[in-house]
Amino acid sequence: MTNPVPPRKAPDQPWRSEGTPEEEPPKPSPGGRRMRGGWWNLVLAALVVYLIANLVLSFFNDGDEPTISYTAFSKQVADGNVSKIYSKGDAIQGQLKKSQDNPEGDGKYTKFKTQRPEFADDQLWEQLTKNNVTVTAEPVVQQRSFLVNLLISLAPMLLLVVLWVFIARRMSAGLGGGGGMLGRKAPPKPVELEPGAQRTTFADVAGIDEVEGELNDVVDFLKNPDAYRRMGAKMPRGVLLAGPPGTGKTLLARAVAGEAGVPFFSASASEFIEMIVGVGASRVRELFAEARKVAPSIIFIDEIDTIGRARAGGSGMGGHDEREQTLNQILTEMDGFSGSEGVIVLAATNRADILDPALTRPGRFDRVVNVSPPDRGGREAILEIHTRQIPLAPDVDLAQVARTTPGMTGAELANLANEAALLAVKRQQELVTQTDLSEALEKVQLGAERPLVMPAEERRRTACHESGHALLGMLQPGADPVRKITIVPRGRALGVTLSTPDADRYAYTEEYLRGRIIGALGGMAAEQVVFGVVTTGSENDLEQVTNIVRGMVARWGMSERVGRLSALPNDAQQAYGLSAAPQTLDVIEHEMRRIVDECYDEACGKLRDHRAQLDALATALLENETLEEADAYRVAGIARLGKDG
């Protein structure tokens, strides 16, 4: 089993890495114009906050102890409402026994301040003594010390500093280390594999031996760079892995790094893209800088078509949007490599046809490696790898499973093995049997069974429909052998006929394709011959027929009227009306109808000639619901020919 990719250590680091050496903590940036400007702004803001805080505190202090007139003070003394006072010179502080309304302000007051006029001759001491007012030696209103006032006034400033630093770090992280309000953020430390974890090597990869051979050059260069330098040879700066999804491109890239024993940095192209323009380019620069530090190393960019699409000429934002800036930075970084750096870029895509030509020119991704679905031997090897941890019963034949899974990728085979293990767990078995693998394959290829109860008439029609597919597949020379027939509803289908070739096919003859069309039309033809009606159950069959016959006429030169040319592109469904002249499209449509009509007439004729076998298959299906390969051929009375091991 392969090891999982290490997680990212920080959310702002858009790549993962493995096999990197320990690094010293990065030294802080010495600071520059941006940092000094940031600190000056911070000091200015702090000063403003300090002044505002003092102003607010002064308002609070004034509100706590109001200043009253000396006349009001004399009246309160005469009324016996003053409990104590403190005097320093002509300034008097005091406290009332009962709070009074403030005639010169809002609210009530208890403590107060006043000023005794120099000309006053009111016998104040006798009045105070008469009314038992205490004259204290300490101020009635205790003023805050300078230190307390300073701390209170600094509190908003400290809060502002904390907020400022927090925002600066977030902005610096958002810019991918390119710099924030407080200067450039240090690059994140690469992620390490867990101690004792095994790296992925070619031993964990199977089914793509020819691709492995091409990538052995990269491994040998990383292991022995001096031998190449002596000969003046330079390794390709970039290797593009192109192929359908699930063929193991990412696994292969990790295996190259693990086999060579060099650090491996992997990232998805979409992780470089952010809303802020310039972030992607900054992250690309940082990733390549990290890779150079630990060279020789490998950078792997998955789904590079996300940012590597062909750039529009002068349209949109004129090449200044985020995606194109990121692509330009990748091109610049790859051009900046020298042959001695030992940093190789691997990239994966399943849309190599839409990549920008600047990416695939010599000097960038100058080697394209096509990763195709595995052949029979490769599928068997892949199944052996993915069943290492699965206990298999003695009756399991992985070679037989590989024969019945043509065209399946490594990811699909891994899913097949997992589905078989899940079935075994549900059945409380100790081992995974061949039956589990067969049923898992049916679930993957045909869909899960549906508990659907069909009326008897519709069930008869479905049995006849599937028998028509199967019988024509048995009768047609060179057709794919029938593996299974069932009228148990699966997925969206009411019944399924499974036919797969004995050996992998890489080129198809016109006779074989016509046989495929006849077999696909067998269900509709059987309903027409037996019931004299056509139902909607042939929708998927007609889609297959349309795709095959369109390719025959417009792409593969199998029509005399259209000729030996490719009149429609591969994605003809999206650009059907724009790819050829109207007259050519009319000829294509006429030829498609002609071939389909000929195949349908032939299908109806064969089913009429073999009506007894058709009825026998339909009856057996109604009784058993499912017929395996041997039973189907036996019921039809047809010998199974051409079977190779």
Give a description of the structure:
There is one protein chain. The protein has 22 helices and 13 strands. The protein has helices at residues 33-64, 70-78, 124-130, 146-174, 209-223, 225-230, 249-260, 279-293, 305-308, 322-335, 357-360, 376-386, 398-403, 410-426, 434-446, 456-475, 510-520, 522-530, 539-554, 582-609, 611-624, 629-636; strands spanning 16-18, 82-88, 91-101, 108-115, 134-135, 238-242, 264-268, 297-302, 343-349, 367-370, 482-486, 496-499, 626-628. α14 packs across α15 (434-446), α16 (456-475) packs antiparallel against α17 (510-520) and α19 packs across α20 (582-609). The longest helix is centred in the first third of the chain and has 32 residues, at 33-64. The protein is elongated, with a radius of gyration of 42 Å.
Short description:
The chain is of the alpha/beta class and 645 residues long. It is built from 22 helices and 13 strands.
Termini separation comes to: 29 Å
Report the helical percentage.
40-55%
Give the uncertain stretches in residue-range form: 23-36, 175-195, 314-320
Overall body shape:
elongated
Radius of gyration: 42 Å
Count of helix runs: 22
Class computed from helices, strands and strand pairing: alpha/beta
Number of strands: 13
How would a textbook summarize the main sheet? Answer: 6 strands, mixed
User: What share of residues are in beta strands?
Assistant: 5-15%
| Mean pLDDT across every amino acid position | 77
Main sheet: which strands, in order across?
A: 1-7-8-9-6-10
